[in-house]
Amino acid sequence: MHIHILGICGTFMGSLAQLARARGMQVTGCDANVYPPMSDQLAAAGIEIVQGFDPAQLNPAPDLVVVGNAMSRGNPVVEALLNSTIPYVSGPQFLREQLLDERWVLAVAGTHGKTTTSSMLAWILDVAGMAPGYLIGGVPQNFGVSARLGDSPFFVVEADEYDSAFFDKRSKFVHYRARTCVLNNLEFDHADIFPDLAAIERQFHHLVRTVPSQGRLIYPAGDPAISRVLAQGCWSEQMPLGSAEGFTANLLTPDGGEFEVCMRGESCGVVRWGQTGLHNVSNALAAIAAAHHVGVTPVVAVQALATFAGVKRRLEKLAEIRGVSIYDDFAHHPTAIATTLQGMRNKVGQSRLIALIEPRSNTMRMGVHGEALPDAVGQADQVYWFQPEGVDWALESLVRDPGREKVRSQLDTLVDELATQLQAGDHLVIMSNGGFGGIHRKLIKAMEQQ
Is domain 316-449 given the CATH code 3.40.50.10860 in the classification? Predict the structure, then answer.
Protein backbone atom coordinates (compact mmCIF):
# COMPACT_ATOMS: atom_id res chain seq x y z
CA MET A 1 0.00 0.00 0.00
CA HIS A 2 1.40 3.39 -1.01
CA ILE A 3 0.36 6.33 1.17
CA HIS A 4 1.31 9.94 0.48
CA ILE A 5 1.23 12.38 3.39
CA LEU A 6 0.51 16.07 2.87
CA GLY A 7 2.30 18.12 5.53
CA ILE A 8 4.61 15.29 6.55
CA CYS A 9 7.15 17.26 8.61
CA GLY A 10 4.84 18.20 11.46
CA THR A 11 5.52 16.23 14.62
CA PHE A 12 2.28 14.24 14.46
CA MET A 13 2.35 13.56 10.71
CA GLY A 14 6.04 12.73 10.67
CA SER A 15 5.57 10.27 13.51
CA LEU A 16 2.58 8.78 11.72
CA ALA A 17 4.72 8.33 8.60
CA GLN A 18 7.33 6.37 10.57
CA LEU A 19 4.68 4.08 12.05
CA ALA A 20 3.19 3.40 8.62
CA ARG A 21 6.64 2.63 7.25
CA ALA A 22 7.29 0.25 10.13
CA ARG A 23 4.06 -1.54 9.17
CA GLY A 24 5.56 -2.19 5.74
CA MET A 25 3.72 0.49 3.78
CA GLN A 26 5.36 2.54 1.06
CA VAL A 27 5.37 6.08 2.43
CA THR A 28 6.08 9.37 0.69
CA GLY A 29 5.11 12.90 1.59
CA CYS A 30 5.52 16.61 1.07
CA ASP A 31 5.89 19.79 3.06
CA ALA A 32 6.88 23.41 2.61
CA ASN A 33 9.47 23.47 5.38
CA VAL A 34 11.60 20.35 5.48
CA TYR A 35 13.97 20.71 8.43
CA PRO A 36 15.53 18.69 11.29
CA PRO A 37 14.90 16.89 13.51
CA MET A 38 11.85 15.43 11.75
CA SER A 39 13.48 15.46 8.30
CA ASP A 40 16.37 13.43 9.75
CA GLN A 41 14.00 10.89 11.31
CA LEU A 42 12.08 10.51 8.04
CA ALA A 43 15.26 10.09 6.00
CA ALA A 44 16.50 7.44 8.43
CA ALA A 45 13.21 5.58 7.93
CA GLY A 46 13.66 5.62 4.14
CA ILE A 47 10.76 7.99 3.50
CA GLU A 48 10.99 10.17 0.40
CA ILE A 49 9.93 13.80 0.86
CA VAL A 50 8.92 16.26 -1.85
CA GLN A 51 9.66 19.93 -1.14
CA GLY A 52 6.55 22.02 -1.80
CA PHE A 53 3.01 21.33 -2.99
CA ASP A 54 3.25 20.75 -6.74
CA PRO A 55 0.22 18.68 -7.89
CA ALA A 56 2.58 16.56 -10.02
CA GLN A 57 3.49 14.60 -6.88
CA LEU A 58 0.10 12.83 -7.12
CA ASN A 59 1.09 11.25 -10.43
CA PRO A 60 1.31 8.29 -10.36
CA ALA A 61 -1.52 8.20 -7.86
CA PRO A 62 -0.87 6.74 -4.40
CA ASP A 63 -3.38 4.29 -2.93
CA LEU A 64 -4.32 6.77 -0.20
CA VAL A 65 -3.51 10.37 0.71
CA VAL A 66 -3.27 11.32 4.39
CA VAL A 67 -3.97 15.02 4.88
CA GLY A 68 -2.33 16.95 7.72
CA ASN A 69 -4.33 19.59 9.56
CA ALA A 70 -1.95 22.33 8.41
CA MET A 71 -3.22 21.85 4.85
CA SER A 72 -6.03 24.11 3.65
CA ARG A 73 -8.20 24.81 0.65
CA GLY A 74 -6.42 26.75 -2.07
CA ASN A 75 -3.22 24.76 -1.67
CA PRO A 76 -2.32 23.41 -5.15
CA VAL A 77 -1.89 19.79 -4.11
CA VAL A 78 -5.07 19.89 -2.00
CA GLU A 79 -7.07 21.21 -4.94
CA ALA A 80 -5.57 18.55 -7.22
CA LEU A 81 -6.48 15.89 -4.68
CA LEU A 82 -10.08 17.04 -4.42
CA ASN A 83 -10.41 17.14 -8.21
CA SER A 84 -9.15 13.56 -8.44
CA THR A 85 -10.68 10.27 -7.34
CA ILE A 86 -7.81 9.40 -4.98
CA PRO A 87 -9.08 8.35 -1.52
CA TYR A 88 -8.03 10.59 1.37
CA VAL A 89 -8.33 10.66 5.16
CA SER A 90 -7.16 12.78 8.07
CA GLY A 91 -4.08 11.75 10.05
CA PRO A 92 -6.00 10.80 13.22
CA GLN A 93 -8.47 8.69 11.24
CA PHE A 94 -5.61 6.89 9.49
CA LEU A 95 -3.92 6.23 12.82
CA ARG A 96 -7.07 4.69 14.27
CA GLU A 97 -8.05 2.58 11.28
CA GLN A 98 -4.62 1.37 10.15
CA LEU A 99 -2.45 1.27 13.26
CA LEU A 100 -4.57 1.13 16.44
CA ASP A 101 -7.02 -1.61 15.50
CA GLU A 102 -7.50 -4.06 18.40
CA ARG A 103 -4.93 -2.28 20.57
CA TRP A 104 -5.40 -0.99 24.12
CA VAL A 105 -4.99 2.74 23.65
CA LEU A 106 -3.73 4.87 26.53
CA ALA A 107 -4.42 8.49 25.58
CA VAL A 108 -3.04 11.56 27.35
CA ALA A 109 -5.03 14.76 26.81
CA GLY A 110 -5.00 18.21 28.38
CA THR A 111 -3.77 21.73 27.78
CA HIS A 112 -0.36 21.19 29.41
CA GLY A 113 1.94 18.25 29.99
CA LYS A 114 0.67 15.88 27.29
CA THR A 115 4.07 15.22 25.74
CA THR A 116 5.89 14.74 29.03
CA THR A 117 3.18 12.57 30.61
CA SER A 118 2.93 10.41 27.47
CA SER A 119 6.70 9.96 27.51
CA MET A 120 6.69 9.01 31.19
CA LEU A 121 3.88 6.53 30.61
CA ALA A 122 5.57 4.89 27.62
CA TRP A 123 8.80 4.59 29.61
CA ILE A 124 7.06 3.04 32.63
CA LEU A 125 5.39 0.45 30.40
CA ASP A 126 8.69 -0.25 28.66
CA VAL A 127 10.57 -0.77 31.93
CA ALA A 128 7.73 -3.06 33.04
CA GLY A 129 8.43 -5.25 30.00
CA MET A 130 5.27 -4.32 28.10
CA ALA A 131 7.06 -3.04 24.95
CA PRO A 132 4.36 -0.45 24.14
CA GLY A 133 3.88 1.35 20.87
CA TYR A 134 3.58 5.10 21.09
CA LEU A 135 3.09 8.31 19.15
CA ILE A 136 4.22 11.39 21.05
CA GLY A 137 4.43 15.05 20.03
CA GLY A 138 8.08 15.25 21.01
CA VAL A 139 11.14 13.06 21.33
CA PRO A 140 11.45 11.14 24.64
CA GLN A 141 15.12 11.07 25.56
CA ASN A 142 14.83 7.45 26.73
CA PHE A 143 13.76 6.31 23.26
CA GLY A 144 15.31 8.84 20.87
CA VAL A 145 12.38 8.81 18.42
CA SER A 146 8.86 10.23 18.57
CA ALA A 147 7.00 7.05 17.57
CA ARG A 148 7.27 3.28 17.37
CA LEU A 149 4.87 0.41 16.70
CA GLY A 150 5.78 -1.66 19.73
CA ASP A 151 5.42 -5.40 20.30
CA SER A 152 2.40 -5.56 22.58
CA PRO A 153 -1.31 -4.70 22.62
CA PHE A 154 -0.57 -1.40 24.41
CA PHE A 155 -0.23 1.90 22.60
CA VAL A 156 0.36 5.33 24.17
CA VAL A 157 -0.80 8.36 22.20
CA GLU A 158 -0.54 12.05 22.93
CA ALA A 159 -4.15 13.08 22.37
CA ASP A 160 -4.41 16.59 20.96
CA GLU A 161 -7.59 18.67 20.98
CA TYR A 162 -6.63 20.49 17.77
CA ASP A 163 -8.83 19.78 14.74
CA SER A 164 -8.17 16.77 12.51
CA ALA A 165 -8.17 18.27 9.00
CA PHE A 166 -9.74 21.00 6.89
CA PHE A 167 -12.60 18.59 6.14
CA ASP A 168 -12.87 17.16 9.69
CA LYS A 169 -13.16 19.77 12.42
CA ARG A 170 -13.47 17.24 15.24
CA SER A 171 -10.59 17.18 17.72
CA LYS A 172 -7.96 14.60 16.92
CA PHE A 173 -8.51 12.70 20.15
CA VAL A 174 -12.07 11.57 19.37
CA HIS A 175 -10.66 9.20 16.73
CA TYR A 176 -8.49 7.14 19.07
CA ARG A 177 -11.07 5.16 21.11
CA ALA A 178 -8.99 5.34 24.28
CA ARG A 179 -9.51 2.70 26.97
CA THR A 180 -7.24 4.49 29.46
CA CYS A 181 -7.65 8.26 29.24
CA VAL A 182 -5.70 10.92 31.13
CA LEU A 183 -7.13 14.45 31.30
CA ASN A 184 -4.16 16.37 32.66
CA ASN A 185 -5.76 19.81 32.96
CA LEU A 186 -7.88 22.15 30.88
CA GLU A 187 -7.43 25.85 30.09
CA PHE A 188 -8.21 28.11 27.16
CA ASP A 189 -5.84 27.71 24.23
CA HIS A 190 -5.95 27.39 20.42
CA ALA A 191 -7.80 30.68 20.00
CA ASP A 192 -7.47 30.29 16.24
CA ILE A 193 -10.07 27.50 16.23
CA PHE A 194 -11.89 27.72 19.59
CA PRO A 195 -13.89 30.85 20.51
CA ASP A 196 -13.82 30.20 24.27
CA LEU A 197 -13.12 27.65 26.99
CA ALA A 198 -16.65 26.26 26.78
CA ALA A 199 -16.02 25.19 23.18
CA ILE A 200 -12.91 23.27 24.25
CA GLU A 201 -14.80 21.68 27.14
CA ARG A 202 -17.39 20.46 24.63
CA GLN A 203 -14.67 18.71 22.61
CA PHE A 204 -13.26 17.14 25.77
CA HIS A 205 -16.70 15.80 26.59
CA HIS A 206 -16.82 14.26 23.12
CA LEU A 207 -13.61 12.46 24.15
CA VAL A 208 -15.18 11.34 27.44
CA ARG A 209 -18.10 9.92 25.46
CA THR A 210 -15.75 7.61 23.54
CA VAL A 211 -14.18 5.98 26.63
CA PRO A 212 -15.88 2.61 27.28
CA SER A 213 -17.59 1.75 30.55
CA GLN A 214 -14.74 -0.64 31.39
CA GLY A 215 -12.23 2.09 30.55
CA ARG A 216 -10.83 4.57 33.04
CA LEU A 217 -10.60 8.36 33.21
CA ILE A 218 -7.69 9.76 35.20
CA TYR A 219 -7.72 13.45 36.10
CA PRO A 220 -6.64 15.92 38.82
CA ALA A 221 -9.25 16.37 41.51
CA GLY A 222 -10.54 19.91 41.73
CA ASP A 223 -9.79 21.13 38.20
CA PRO A 224 -12.89 23.29 37.56
CA ALA A 225 -12.95 22.88 33.78
CA ILE A 226 -12.57 19.10 33.96
CA SER A 227 -15.29 19.00 36.61
CA ARG A 228 -17.61 20.79 34.21
CA VAL A 229 -16.71 18.33 31.46
CA LEU A 230 -17.50 15.31 33.65
CA ALA A 231 -20.72 16.92 34.87
CA GLN A 232 -21.99 16.69 31.29
CA GLY A 233 -21.95 12.90 31.68
CA CYS A 234 -19.42 10.15 32.37
CA TRP A 235 -19.93 6.42 31.88
CA SER A 236 -16.44 5.11 32.72
CA GLU A 237 -14.42 4.31 35.83
CA GLN A 238 -12.88 7.43 37.36
CA MET A 239 -9.66 7.98 39.27
CA PRO A 240 -9.18 11.51 40.62
CA LEU A 241 -5.55 12.32 41.41
CA GLY A 242 -4.55 14.19 44.54
CA SER A 243 -7.47 12.77 46.51
CA ALA A 244 -7.79 9.96 49.05
CA GLU A 245 -9.35 7.74 46.35
CA GLY A 246 -6.32 7.84 44.05
CA PHE A 247 -2.64 8.66 43.94
CA THR A 248 -1.06 11.51 45.91
CA ALA A 249 2.45 12.94 46.18
CA ASN A 250 4.34 14.18 49.22
CA LEU A 251 7.15 16.55 48.26
CA LEU A 252 10.50 15.79 49.83
CA THR A 253 12.31 18.65 48.06
CA PRO A 254 10.80 22.00 47.03
CA ASP A 255 11.73 21.60 43.35
CA GLY A 256 9.98 18.23 42.95
CA GLY A 257 13.28 16.39 42.51
CA GLU A 258 12.20 13.93 45.22
CA PHE A 259 8.68 12.97 46.23
CA GLU A 260 6.85 10.09 47.85
CA VAL A 261 4.03 8.43 45.90
CA CYS A 262 1.05 7.11 47.83
CA MET A 263 -1.96 5.12 46.65
CA ARG A 264 -5.03 5.44 48.88
CA GLY A 265 -2.74 6.61 51.66
CA GLU A 266 -0.23 3.73 51.38
CA SER A 267 3.33 4.56 50.37
CA CYS A 268 4.46 3.11 47.03
CA GLY A 269 8.01 4.45 47.17
CA VAL A 270 10.01 7.59 46.50
CA VAL A 271 10.79 9.07 43.09
CA ARG A 272 14.28 10.56 42.87
CA TRP A 273 14.92 11.93 39.40
CA GLY A 274 16.38 14.75 37.35
CA GLN A 275 13.08 16.49 36.58
CA THR A 276 11.93 19.67 38.30
CA GLY A 277 8.67 21.47 38.97
CA LEU A 278 5.36 20.62 40.61
CA HIS A 279 3.83 20.22 37.15
CA ASN A 280 6.14 17.27 36.53
CA VAL A 281 5.12 15.72 39.85
CA SER A 282 1.50 15.94 38.65
CA ASN A 283 2.50 14.49 35.27
CA ALA A 284 4.20 11.60 37.07
CA LEU A 285 1.12 10.78 39.16
CA ALA A 286 -1.00 10.67 36.00
CA ALA A 287 1.49 8.35 34.27
CA ILE A 288 1.68 6.06 37.32
CA ALA A 289 -2.13 5.89 37.50
CA ALA A 290 -2.47 5.15 33.78
CA ALA A 291 0.16 2.40 33.95
CA HIS A 292 -1.62 0.93 36.98
CA HIS A 293 -4.78 0.55 34.88
CA VAL A 294 -2.95 -1.90 32.59
CA GLY A 295 -1.36 -3.85 35.41
CA VAL A 296 1.90 -2.10 36.29
CA THR A 297 2.35 -1.92 40.03
CA PRO A 298 3.04 1.55 41.48
CA VAL A 299 6.31 0.25 42.94
CA VAL A 300 7.58 -0.66 39.45
CA ALA A 301 6.34 2.67 38.06
CA VAL A 302 8.18 4.62 40.77
CA GLN A 303 11.37 2.71 40.00
CA ALA A 304 10.97 3.40 36.27
CA LEU A 305 10.62 7.15 36.80
CA ALA A 306 13.98 7.24 38.55
CA THR A 307 15.53 6.63 35.11
CA PHE A 308 13.19 8.88 33.13
CA ALA A 309 15.45 11.14 31.06
CA GLY A 310 12.92 13.78 30.03
CA VAL A 311 11.83 15.01 26.61
CA LYS A 312 13.74 17.03 24.06
CA ARG A 313 12.76 20.69 24.22
CA ARG A 314 11.05 20.29 27.60
CA LEU A 315 13.48 22.23 29.78
CA GLU A 316 16.28 20.44 27.96
CA LYS A 317 19.73 21.56 29.02
CA LEU A 318 21.59 22.27 25.80
CA ALA A 319 24.93 23.47 27.09
CA GLU A 320 26.94 24.91 29.93
CA ILE A 321 29.43 27.48 28.66
CA ARG A 322 31.59 29.77 30.80
CA GLY A 323 29.43 28.73 33.76
CA VAL A 324 26.19 29.72 31.99
CA SER A 325 23.51 27.01 31.70
CA ILE A 326 21.32 27.24 28.56
CA TYR A 327 17.97 25.46 28.37
CA ASP A 328 15.44 24.94 25.57
CA ASP A 329 11.76 24.78 26.51
CA PHE A 330 8.59 24.38 24.46
CA ALA A 331 6.38 26.46 26.79
CA HIS A 332 3.89 28.52 24.76
CA HIS A 333 1.12 29.33 27.24
CA PRO A 334 1.28 31.56 30.36
CA THR A 335 0.61 28.64 32.71
CA ALA A 336 3.37 26.54 31.13
CA ILE A 337 5.79 29.47 31.26
CA ALA A 338 4.98 30.16 34.91
CA THR A 339 5.29 26.53 36.08
CA THR A 340 8.54 26.02 34.18
CA LEU A 341 10.12 29.14 35.65
CA GLN A 342 8.84 28.29 39.15
CA GLY A 343 10.42 24.85 38.86
CA MET A 344 13.69 26.41 37.72
CA ARG A 345 13.61 28.91 40.57
CA ASN A 346 13.19 26.11 43.09
CA LYS A 347 16.11 24.31 41.47
CA VAL A 348 18.60 27.18 41.10
CA GLY A 349 17.78 29.10 44.27
CA GLN A 350 19.23 32.62 44.26
CA SER A 351 21.16 32.22 41.00
CA ARG A 352 20.20 34.60 38.21
CA LEU A 353 17.36 33.22 36.05
CA ILE A 354 16.83 34.75 32.59
CA ALA A 355 13.83 34.01 30.39
CA LEU A 356 13.87 34.57 26.63
CA ILE A 357 10.39 34.19 25.15
CA GLU A 358 9.13 34.12 21.56
CA PRO A 359 5.29 34.29 21.41
CA ARG A 360 4.99 32.01 18.41
CA SER A 361 1.87 29.84 18.84
CA ASN A 362 -1.24 30.96 16.98
CA THR A 363 -2.92 31.94 20.25
CA MET A 364 0.08 33.93 21.48
CA ARG A 365 0.50 35.66 18.11
CA MET A 366 -3.14 36.77 18.35
CA GLY A 367 -2.38 38.45 21.69
CA VAL A 368 -5.03 36.42 23.51
CA HIS A 369 -2.83 35.79 26.57
CA GLY A 370 -1.40 39.31 26.70
CA GLU A 371 -2.84 40.09 30.13
CA ALA A 372 -1.54 36.88 31.71
CA LEU A 373 1.99 36.89 30.29
CA PRO A 374 3.54 39.56 32.57
CA ASP A 375 2.62 37.57 35.70
CA ALA A 376 3.87 34.34 34.12
CA VAL A 377 7.50 35.55 34.17
CA GLY A 378 7.47 36.69 37.80
CA GLN A 379 10.18 34.22 38.85
CA ALA A 380 12.72 35.46 36.28
CA ASP A 381 15.36 38.03 37.22
CA GLN A 382 15.64 39.19 33.61
CA VAL A 383 13.15 38.81 30.75
CA TYR A 384 13.69 39.21 27.01
CA TRP A 385 10.54 39.33 24.87
CA PHE A 386 11.25 38.66 21.20
CA GLN A 387 8.95 40.39 18.68
CA PRO A 388 8.52 38.00 15.72
CA GLU A 389 7.58 39.14 12.25
CA GLY A 390 3.85 39.04 11.57
CA VAL A 391 2.76 39.72 15.15
CA ASP A 392 0.60 42.81 14.87
CA TRP A 393 0.62 43.79 18.55
CA ALA A 394 3.55 45.40 20.30
CA LEU A 395 5.25 43.32 22.97
CA GLU A 396 6.16 46.55 24.75
CA SER A 397 2.68 46.29 26.29
CA LEU A 398 3.96 43.36 28.36
CA VAL A 399 6.77 45.30 29.99
CA ARG A 400 6.10 46.32 33.59
CA ASP A 401 9.68 46.96 34.70
CA PRO A 402 11.88 48.38 31.91
CA GLY A 403 14.98 47.71 34.00
CA ARG A 404 14.16 44.02 34.18
CA GLU A 405 12.34 43.40 30.89
CA LYS A 406 13.45 44.14 27.35
CA VAL A 407 11.83 43.76 23.92
CA ARG A 408 14.03 42.80 20.99
CA SER A 409 13.22 42.18 17.32
CA GLN A 410 16.62 41.50 15.71
CA LEU A 411 17.87 37.98 16.28
CA ASP A 412 21.57 38.49 15.59
CA THR A 413 21.72 41.63 17.73
CA LEU A 414 20.02 39.76 20.54
CA VAL A 415 22.54 36.92 20.30
CA ASP A 416 25.43 39.39 20.58
CA GLU A 417 23.78 41.11 23.55
CA LEU A 418 23.20 37.86 25.43
CA ALA A 419 26.67 36.49 24.68
CA THR A 420 28.17 39.65 26.17
CA GLN A 421 25.94 40.04 29.23
CA LEU A 422 25.46 36.46 30.46
CA GLN A 423 27.62 35.72 33.50
CA ALA A 424 28.90 32.59 35.23
CA GLY A 425 26.14 31.10 37.38
CA ASP A 426 23.31 32.35 35.13
CA HIS A 427 20.53 30.08 33.91
CA LEU A 428 18.95 31.06 30.57
CA VAL A 429 15.65 29.43 29.55
CA ILE A 430 14.74 29.93 25.87
CA MET A 431 10.99 29.45 25.33
CA SER A 432 9.33 28.92 21.95
CA ASN A 433 7.27 26.23 20.27
CA GLY A 434 9.21 26.79 17.04
CA GLY A 435 12.79 26.89 15.86
CA PHE A 436 13.26 30.50 17.04
CA GLY A 437 15.52 31.22 14.06
CA GLY A 438 18.18 28.83 15.34
CA ILE A 439 18.98 31.15 18.25
CA HIS A 440 20.03 28.26 20.49
CA ARG A 441 22.82 27.18 18.16
CA LYS A 442 23.82 30.76 17.33
CA LEU A 443 24.10 31.76 20.98
CA ILE A 444 26.12 28.69 21.92
CA LYS A 445 28.49 29.32 19.02
CA ALA A 446 28.87 33.01 19.91
CA MET A 447 29.68 32.18 23.53
CA GLU A 448 32.17 29.49 22.52
CA GLN A 449 34.01 31.98 20.33
CA GLN A 450 34.40 34.58 23.07
Answer: no
